[in-house]
Specification:
Blueprint: H1 15-29, E1 31-33, H2 34-41, H3 45-57, E2 61-64, E3 67-70, H4 87-98, E4 106-109, H5 113-119, E5 129-132, H6 135-144, E6 148-151, E7 155-156, E8 163-164, H7 166-172, E9 177-182, E10 186-188, E11 191-194, H8 197-208, E12 210-216, E13 228-231, E14 238-242, H9 247-255, E15 259-263
Parallel strand pairs: 4-5, 4-9, 5-6, 9-12, 12-14, 14-15
Antiparallel strand pairs: 1-3, 2-3, 7-8, 10-11, 11-13
Helix pairs in contact: 4-5
Length: 265
């Protein structure tokens, strides 16, 4: 018997919650079929097909006859990357981000290769307090800065050297920082996204504790969807991105109220 058919108690889901759950199931099982989804959610095939259609339009899955499969084009994380992609862009973005930091600031640094480039520059600043959930970031900051480093606890994501889960989010909820520098795997007008839902929850919390939220991303992430949406453009105060980004998309993001800085590479 399919695992979905073993579920005896049904939970009432709002439409967005239901679509998020569908993606979670798909990520675990690689393929899903409409009858199983109807049984799980106790709703009609027409409603499920409409959900699958909307998720396909967002690029998050591929519909098949009777169900759906993972969209292989959805951006996934890479573990233990020996050579950082788009390094020149990330360095330029980090250098611009440094100009926004003042001595004495309390910062939150998200896990990511661009935030890592920023961390390498922070030895030039004094009296910083820096909240991180990334072990490699913490070690780098300890070795190369005089900052007070706050390492958030939680479950260590295997292969990703960062902490996630309820302990991580609860730790951060007691903190307020001046600026949070956030990374993303995907950026569209609908939102910012990451492959892991638990990582997304940690990012959402990091955004919530900051007086100013600054997104650092190279242009390769623009127009890309990943598995779990963790923020909307309304949550971002400032975007720093390289000059290969599509101008029309940047204009649309600017219309959402984001202050955008484009750096030359």
């Amino acid at each position: 018997m399919n695992a979905l058919a073993k579920i005896q108690q049904r939970t009432l889901y709002f439409p967005e919650e239901r679509k998020r759950k569908i993606l979670e199931m798909l990520n675990e099982q690689k393929k899903i079929v409409v009858p199983d989804l109807c049984k799980y959610f106790n709703i009609s095939p027409a409603t499920i097909r409409n959900d699958l259609h909307e998720l396909e339009q967002s690029g998050l899955l591929k519909r098949t006859h009777g169900g759906a499969i993972l969209n292989q084009r959805v951006k996934q994380e890479k573990q233990f990357v020996s050579e950082v992609e788009h390094l020149a862009e990330k360095k330029a973005i980090a250098a611009e981000a440094l100009t926004l930091i003042e001595d004495g600031d309390a910062l939150a640094l998200d896990t990511g290769t661009t935030t890592m480039e920023l961390a390498k520059l922070l030895g030039a600043k004094r009296n910083l307090t820096i909240v991180v959930n990334d072990i490699q970031l913490a070690l780098l900051l300890e070795a190369n800065t005089e900052a007070t480093v706050v390492l958030v606890g939680g479950i260590l994501r295997k292969g990703m050297h960062c902490t996630v889960g309820p302990m991580a989010t609860e730790d951060m909820k007691t903190i307020t920082v001046d600026k949070a520098f956030i990374a993303t795997n995907g950026l569209t007008l609908k939102g910012l996204s990451t492959p892991d839902m638990h990582q997304g929850e940690t990012k959402t919390t990091m955004i919530s504790i900051a007086n100013e939220v600054i997104l650092l991303t190279d242009s390769s992430k623009l127009g890309t969807n990943s598995f779990s949406t963790f923020a909307t453009p309304d949550d971002i105060d400032r975007l720093i991105i390289d000059d290969k980004a599509d101008p029309s998309t940047l204009n649309a993001l600017s219309d959402c109220g984001i202050s955008i800085t484009v750096v030359s590479v």
